[in-house]
Amino acid sequence: MSVKDNGPGIPEDEIPIVLASFGQGTNAIKSAEQGTGLGLPIAKNLVDLHGGTFTLKSKVRFGTEVIITFPPERVMSALGPYQEPSPSIQPGQERPARQPTARSA
User: In what order do the strands lie in the sheet containing 63-69?
Assistant: First the structure.
């Protein structure tokens, strides 16, 4: 999975800082819209818990990309389409009403 933006980017020497809890790069400190510095570290830790890889690429004035890869055993196999019985379109052949079920006390 990959997520990209076209924001101000993160200087290469600040990538370890922004991946640390509460770490903020110089661009974030200068901006009026500061975060807490927890988003990237939390995302990275969740990926690590699943045995995946978390790669952060950034270029100042061009943006940032985060690439996440999970190991095959942590990814659910593709499921076939869910098939729900369709109601009859023939007049007079409506489905029977549901019967109430007994409740245990």
Answer: 2-4, 63-69, 53-59
10-48 per-position pLDDT tens digit:
999 999 999 988 888 776 656 656 778 898 999 999 999
- Domains, the chain: 2-73 (3.30.565.10)
Query: Which residue's structure tokens are 């200068």?
Result: 30
HSE-CB of 58 using CA atoms within 13 angstroms: 21
pTM over 0.70? The answer is: no
